[in-house]
Fold this protein.
Amino acid sequence: MLKKSVVENTLTAALETGADFAELYVEETRRNQIGMVNGQVETALGGLDYGAGLRLFFGNRVIYAFTNDTAEENLVRLAKETAATAKGARLYALAEMQKKYCRGINPIALYPNSVEKKKKAQYLAAASAAAFAYDSRISQTRTGFLDVTKDVLVANSLGVWAEEQRVRSRFTVEAVASSASEKQSGHQGPGGSVGFELFRRIDVEEVAREAARTAVTMLSAKACPAGRMPVVIDNGFGGVIFHEACGHGLEATAVARNASVFAGKLGQEIASPLVTAIDDGTIPNGWGSANMDDEGMPTRKNVLIEKGILKTYLIDKMNGRKMGMEPTGSARRENYRFAPTSRMTNTFLAPGASTPEEIIRATSWGLYAKQMGGGSVDPATGSFNFAVLEGYLIRNGQICEPVRGATLIGKGAETLWKIDMVGNNLKRAQGMCGSISGSIPTDVGQPMIRVSEMTVGGRG
């Protein structure tokens, strides 16, 4: 992407005033998006984003600057101006660059850029038709396809030179069901670090029917009763609760500032012995997978919690300095406009020994949260509030009538202790995660779990 001499001259200039670490991140991103409403094309967008970010460390102080002009003259000037804002105790030399080679975690069979928009639109139209055909109460559909091809270079003063091309594709569908007085919607959004072969992995019509099924089911649902009760949370996107209420608290971004309830608890029991939580950036073609993180380190599988014991945090280079711990290949950023920090990749609860049928049969009364919606969380306390997109009451060990308007309220650290059954049906789902380094693709997942008691908000 840039000549070696340009990178070396930029980093050398960045070290002139005593920075003990300098890093150059260069990115070129091609993005294409097509969207349909009711089977008709509404948007067809494409774009190119190119630029570089320069990061300097002076001890535990970080200085970050970025530009979309990567001419050598401009990069060297940016480095000198950025370095001039601080002064270190001594001068550091630039190490010899050692190129790293990618491991090929995410093989691509068919690059999306090579596929005509017309062919992409055909899949979206088929999904829309399938949703409308599911039930006469489906009144609107929205379908979309996004593909992103990102070329990344990371080089730093310690001699790291790492390059990678990242390709991601995602299909989305929303179906709206309407009656005389109500509207309800269902959503699905499968994707991965794959090319256009995504459509060989999924059946768009089946995905659309599932979105339509949710919308129609919730249209006739009654209001959920409120109170304290057992809650069974299904697999897939149910993992968003762990991601938001606990996962962010295990990122060094919060831990290094002592702004996490899990700070200082390594080696301690923080959850039910049934809980093992993993963040794995090496899952082949996973939505959050990559060969390297945004500091040029190889991604890896990090066991965060093992049988209830806190084993590690997700750590980036700067927060690792502050904590006296080594990075875990977990530094991520949205693009060159953001400095990297510790973030999740593909985060999930490991499967247990119970079947979903056993979990439901063992629950005499409670709420079954089949699909989770959005919510909010305070990372410092782990307090969360999540909407249930599709829910049902459980009576006498059986799933009964659907209910809507349910909200799960609690604290992540407390909820971990109350997980008393874990299913064997692990499934992951795709989403976007926002934090101080921008919005990034992350997988969430879990098998079905039962929380012995939670506060459920509702109007019933």
Observations:
- The chain is about 20% helix and 40% strand.
- The chain has two domains: 112-149+166-220, 223-457.
- The chain has a mean pLDDT of 96.
- Residues 223-457 form one domain.
